[in-house]
């Protein structure tokens, strides 16, 4: 006996990466090295701290601006589009959930390449829509078959998670042109890449871009993401959002963060420099590591057993991510931390590989 719809009852739900149970203060002083959920190792803009310090309880008494205009305006200026092209979301994940509800049902499938973000199949189950999973090749090139699925919604994560690989903007423009349905380009990690698909929203009325404030802007705890798309698509998606889907504090802090492009760019450059060093060091240990355009790398074990290495790292209080997916069984996804965190991980790996 269950009260739930059949597909909800059968769904497993999304499994987030491990979050240590300690409070944030204990957590910072603890010896845990947390490289499992692609958080930014550097703090957000000092402007975020300033705005946070000025928020009074009075601000909380009133409902927030339902559209988050302050953020839409600021993001529009950064991206060179009017605010009507932007919709605020409670994390990029909320946009994904809205897109499934907006475009998919029993007769309207979703399509995406695999392996990719493990939330996509979970949302498909919950929405009771068919998920057309088109395998990537071993180099994570865009699968040609994706253009001919007839899906109502096609999602491409670029840079892809968990591979970190990047598909050229021109290829995604051709895909948008060929599809009869909507193309959602999940750019949660694009801040760490050399290009992005922003220009596509001006040329295609079927393209939605997902952006997140969790990675490049160091605000994973705030829960703030946004959509960029043609005003018609944004207006349609707005119908699905909760009346006040982003809170007053989140709007103010996300706006402060996106306005401080200098801090953002400096942070991103630090992560990219560390990504280069970290990749070289992992290769010296015998891992195969494709070039990453994200703030994580996917390291393939050539001389070790990935789940065993994962477990041995957990025993040392070091958390990375292992996915028991058929083509990821020999791989470990590791967020790029600060030099100290990365060095701790590298030393632990050296020890483990000697065992
Ligand atoms: C590929 C991908 N897309 C979207 C998101 C959503 O990010 P958030 O909800 O934190 O903005 C994540 C989070 O890890 C992700 O990995």
Report what the structure shows.
- The chain has helices at residues 6-10, 24-29, 46-54, 57-61, 69-79, 92-103, 119-127, 169-178, 200-203, 231-238, 248-259, 261-284, 306-315, 339-354, and strands at residues 33-34, 86-89, 110-114, 131-135, 153-157, 182-186, 207-212, 225-229, 296-300, 318-319, 331-335.
- It is of the alpha/beta class and 355 residues long.
- It has a 7-stranded mixed sheet with strand order 2-8-7-6-5-3-4, with helices on both faces.
- The relative contact order is 0.16.
- Residues 38, 91-93, 117, 157, 161, 186, 188, 212, 214, 220, 225 line the site of pyridoxal-5'-phosphate (PLP).
Name its key features.
355 residues; alpha/beta; seven-stranded mixed sheet; 11 strands; binds pyridoxal-5'-phosphate
Brief description of this entry?
The protein is an alpha/beta fold. The protein has helices at residues 6-10, 24-29, 46-54, 57-61, 69-79, 92-103, 119-127, 169-178, 200-203, 231-238, 248-259, 261-284, 306-315, 339-354, and strands spanning 33-34, 86-89, 110-114, 131-135, 153-157, 182-186, 207-212, 225-229, 296-300, 318-319, 331-335.
| Rg, Å, rounded | 20 Å
> How would you write the strand order of the largest sheet?
2-8-7-6-5-3-4
Binned, the helix content reads 25-40%
- State the total count of DSSP E strands: 11
What structural category arises from helix and sheet content? alpha/beta
């Amino acid at each position: 006996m269950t009260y739930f719809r059949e597909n909800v009852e059968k769904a497993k739900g999304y499994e987030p990466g491990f979050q240590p149970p300690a409070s944030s203060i204990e957590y910072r002083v603890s010896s845990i090295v947390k490289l499992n959920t692609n958080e930014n190792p550097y703090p957000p803009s000092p402007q975020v701290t300033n705005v946070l310090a000025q928020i009074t309880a009075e601000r909380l008494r009133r409902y927030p601006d339902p559209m988050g205009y302050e953020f839409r305006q600021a993001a529009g200026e950064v991206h060179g589009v009017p605010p009507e092209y932007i919709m605020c979301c409670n994390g990029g994940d909320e946009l994904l959930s809205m897109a499934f509800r907006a475009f998919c049902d029993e007769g309207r499938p979703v399509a995406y390449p695999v392996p990719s973000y493990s939330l996509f199949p979970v949302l498909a189950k919950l929405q009771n829509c068919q998920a057309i999973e088109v395998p990537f090749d071993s180099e994570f090139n865009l699968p040609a078959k994706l253009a001919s699925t007839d899906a109502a919604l096609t999602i491409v994560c670029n840079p892809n998670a968990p591979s970190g690989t990047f598909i050229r903007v021109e290829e995604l423009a051709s895909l948008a042109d060929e599809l009869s349905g909507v193309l959602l380009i999940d750019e949660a990690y694009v801040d760490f890449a050399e290009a992005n698909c922003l220009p596509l929203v001006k040329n295609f009325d079927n393209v939605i871009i997902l952006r997140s404030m969790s990675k490049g802007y160091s605000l994973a705890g705030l829960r703030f993401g946004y959509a960029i798309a043609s005003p018609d698509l944004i207006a349609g998606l707005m119908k699905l959002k909760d009346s006040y889907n982003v809170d007053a504090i989140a709007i103010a802090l996300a706006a402060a963060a996106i306005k401080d492009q200098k801090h953002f760019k400096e942070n991103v450059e630090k992560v990219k420099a560390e990504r280069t060093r970290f990749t070289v060091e992992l290769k010296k240990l015998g891992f195969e590591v494709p070039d990453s355009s994200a703030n994580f790398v996917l390291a393939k074990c050539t001389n070790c057993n990935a789940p065993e290495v994962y477990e041995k790292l957990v025993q040392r209080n070091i958390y990375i991510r292992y996915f028991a997916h058929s083509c990821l069984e020999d791989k470990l996804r590791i967020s790029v931390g600060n030099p100290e965190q990365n060095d701790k991980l590298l030393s632990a790996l050296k020890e483990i590989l000697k065992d």
